[in-house]
Amino acid sequence: MKISFPIMGNSYIAFKQLIRDIGHEPLMAPMPSARTMTLGTMYSPEFACIPFKILMGTYIEAIEKGTDVIISSGGHGPCRAGYYGILHQRIINDLGYNTKVIVFDSVIRTFGDFVKKISWLLDEGKTGWWRFATVFHVVWDKLMALDEIEILSFHIRPYEINKGETSRVYSKCLEMMDQAENRVRIREARDACFQLLHSIPQDKSREPLKIGVIGEIYVLIEPFANLDMQATLGEMGVFTERGTHLSNWTKDNMFMSRHQSRIITAAKPYLRQMIGGHGINSVAETVLYAQRGFDGVIQLAPFSCIPEIVAKGLMPKISRDAGIPVMTIFLDEQMGKAGMQTRLEAFVDLLQQRRQKRLGGAVSW
Amino acid sequence: MVKAYLGVDVGSVSTNMVVMDENEQVLESLYIRTMGQPVKAVQSGLKTLGERIGNSVTIEGVGTTGSARTLTAVLVGADAVKNEITAHAVAVSRKVPGAQTIIEIGGQDSKIIIMRDGIVIDFAMNTVCAAGTGSFLDQQAVRLNIPIEDFGELALKAKTPVRIAGRCAVFAESDMIHKQQLGHSTEDIIAGLCEALVRNYLNNVGKGKEILAPIVFQGGVAANIGIKAAFEKALKQELTIPEHYDVMGAVGCCYLGREAARNKPTGFKGWEAAQFHFRPTSFECKGCPNLCEVIQIFENDVLVARWGDRCGKWSNVNVKVG
Known about the structure:
The structure holds 2 protein chains of 2 kinds.
Chain A: E1 2-4, H1 12-21, E2 25-26, H2 34-43, H3 50-64, E3 69-73, H4 81-94, E4 100-104, H5 111-124, H6 129-156, H7 165-179, H8 183-198, E5 209-215, H9 217-221, H10 229-235, E6 238-242, H11 246-254, H12 258-267, H13 279-291, E7 296-302, H14 306-322, E8 326-331, H15 338-358
Parallel strand pairs in A: 1-2, 1-3, 3-4, 5-6, 5-7, 7-8
Chain B: E1 2-10, E2 14-21, E3 26-33, H1 38-53, E4 57-65, H2 69-76, E5 80-81, H3 84-95, E6 101-105, E7 110-116, E8 119-125, H4 134-144, H5 148-156, H6 169-182, H7 186-204, E9 215-218, H8 225-235, E10 239-240, H9 248-260, E11 278-284, E12 293-299, E13 302-307
Parallel strand pairs in B: 1-4, 4-5, 6-9, 9-10
Antiparallel strand pairs in B: 1-2, 2-3, 6-7, 7-8, 11-12, 12-13
């Protein structure tokens, strides 16, 4: 069976292997582009959020390339994403295709359903559960390694002497990771990538500002959706981290991880319940970044995303209490970068002045 | 010859230029309509300024801001290129010391800047809606056949302002038409519109911000005394309108240009840059799936700048397009 899946950051490298190793043919949809956006907005309800629309476009492009099945993940709590899989399926059927969309919801909340779907996929691929366990471990290692490499690139980019070099090395790293297909090779490739990134010429005398990037998972992870904001900040000389990576998110949805319980505790003074999507994460991560001495936080939210709107409503208070500036950017289908650039520059200026002032020096503009 | 600094703010609607001397006095200021042609607007501004004071000042530093700041920087040879928020804040911190809130409403965008002890601590810009900005007021003035200059004064004559939906320019317009067809007076409708726009601004741009006095109101719309009155009514505060309210971004650029060129010669190309032949072109780079739209600027047929590429490979103007 040909199986396709949404493109979300670098995770496609791991998913490709997962699908192949359980006996199917992975079908890579094209990387999201202007065409994806056009197709996605054309066939989506007008009021749907941008993650829905980009996925819609990606699915159509995958169907054009001949996929039989699309696998995706669901949302939980009061967030529309929980309904998105069904809606995508209906739109695909209405367009006259019979491609099947399989949505995996959280394994803790929908255990039976989860197992049923996996078992169908394994049967179709003539793969046993034992083999699946092994494959899963390998792919999990790969996903973790990909996240580690990406995180390192965000740490190194603000120090790079030749602008753009980190991005070039990073894309080379992705190719190397793509080639590595067993645990030993993955470890080797990961180490080699670390070495490559560390050997980028850097100016360690810089003291970059630190910004935590938080918000809804898709726009956070997929650079196409956020106009490649994290790399842009890096090239402006800013050290960034983001709250959600696919590896920690998967953990949170597999079992109650330490990460997730830390999130719930940190959010408690402001928010005592799950509000769907990544609302509670946005609240908690702002608190945690402030505790870790970050200079500022940028919240990325799909336009009209309720969980992020609720989180945004709490930001003025958190920002005041924790003493950390927060800027919210709503993302929609516009792809012009100028507005984002202006806001990022102004926010970086603000943080720079704040730091100069705190250090007691003269404030320069 | 007096030492002076040039500030240029090229926005969507207007291009503003200011020449400021060493004593921070504004010698000349210009407010030109951009009309979608930033290159032409900047060059005609340079020409006018050059004719007016070109012989009496030497420019020692240049700053640019506004959505066309990068392009403008190439045209004039800027020493500082800064975003609008910083440029406006710099101007206010020098011209209205102690200000804690800046309300800035221009042609297409509106912003709020919160300052404490002379530095920016928070800001917001309108994101998804241009209701409440200058262009919308312009449009409505034309529709009601009132010169925009009289708009504010008429609003002040209102006895009972009509309530108008201010959430969206399209809703506001249809609501206004309905009210007008019911027989409300033009003055009451205009005053209602001013209040609606202020409500929209405070709910959208000003949401969650701590608006403390002294409040500075600037940007082209600050000329409208009807809007000023509506703000004062809503905020129960008096607003300060600085002398050069309509060109504050450019004023800020004078300071930024001065600071950037403090220890090095300015990059200013001279007033004669008004005569240069600038030609922007663009091409799509097919080097990778990003397909960046690369912009090239030719000055008298020599390639002087290139941008728009993600990876930076075209930023060096010596690289040949093959």
